[in-house]
């Protein structure tokens, strides 16, 4: 049995109400899909610390406030994940794809037009219900 991977994920909303998406590079797990930026929680880190670090590393944003949104476990055939999803409402900086990934600010209504990892279905449902 492999270890479940703990991931800090950010639903980053700007002042126009748009949500930041990033496209996973093709060679990675779930490559080519759009995701909410984030990454693995490292040993000794809290979810909030991991979220702040990952959003700085991946999209060049400095998170100053976030709130828990939901948590979910999902089993891919090749990987088990625990996603700790947080709403990010306060941040500084201009979003950039620092790892060469495409990024997009997307309205809630437009989210249905993007292909997400299978684990993300409940996240999308909760966002769209709000
Ligand atoms: N960031 C992010 N990861 C997601 C989402 N949905 C989802 O299933 N995942 C999965 O969660 C894991 C996150 O790992 P990651 O590749 O982003 O990790 P990381 O940024 O720390 O990168 P690294 O592998 O270079 O250390 C991947 O297996 C990915 O497929 C999502 O919306 N956002
Ligand atoms: Mg990542």
Automatic annotation (TrEMBL):
Its EC number is 3.6.1.55. It holds the Pfam family NUDIX_4. 8-oxo-dGTP binds at residues 24, 29, 35-38, 120. Gene3D superfamilies: Nucleoside Triphosphate Pyrophosphohydrolase (3.90.79.10). The keyword DNA damage applies. One of its GO terms (biological process) is DNA repair. Residues 2-129 form the Nudix hydrolase domain. Mg(2+) binds at residues 38, 58. SUPFAM superfamilies: Nudix. CDD domains: NUDIX_MutT_NudA_like (cd03425). Keywords: DNA damage, DNA repair, DNA replication, Hydrolase, Magnesium, Metal-binding, Mutator protein. It catalyses: 8-oxo-GTP + H2O = 8-oxo-GMP + diphosphate + H(+); 8-oxo-dGTP + H2O = 8-oxo-dGMP + diphosphate + H(+). InterPro entries: Mutator_MutT, MutT-like, MutY_C, Nudix_hydrolase, NUDIX_hydrolase-like_dom_sf, NUDIX_hydrolase_dom. Its cofactor is Mg(2+). One of its GO terms (molecular function) is 8-oxo-GDP phosphatase activity. NCBIfam families: mutt. Belongs to the Nudix hydrolase family. This is 8-oxo-dGTP diphosphatase. The lineage of its organism: Bacteria, Pseudomonadati, Pseudomonadota, Gammaproteobacteria, Alteromonadales. The gene is mutT.
């Amino acid at each position: 049995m492999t270890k479940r991977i703990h991931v800090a994920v950010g639903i980053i909303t700007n002042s126009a109400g748009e949500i930041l998406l990033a496209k996973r590079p093709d060679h990675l797990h779930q490559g080519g899909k759009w995701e909410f930026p984030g990454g693995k929680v490292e040993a000794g880190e809290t979810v909030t610390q991991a979220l702040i670090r990952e959003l700085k590393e991946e999209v060049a944003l400095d998170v100053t406030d976030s709130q828990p949104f939901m948590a979910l476990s999902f089993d891919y055939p090749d990987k088990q994940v625990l996603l700790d999803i947080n709403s990010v409402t306060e941040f500084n900086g201009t979003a950039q794809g620092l790892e060469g990934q495409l990024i997009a600010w997307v309205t809630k209504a437009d989210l249905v037009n993007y292909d997400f990892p299978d684990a993300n279905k409940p996240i999308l449902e909760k966002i769209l219900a709000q």
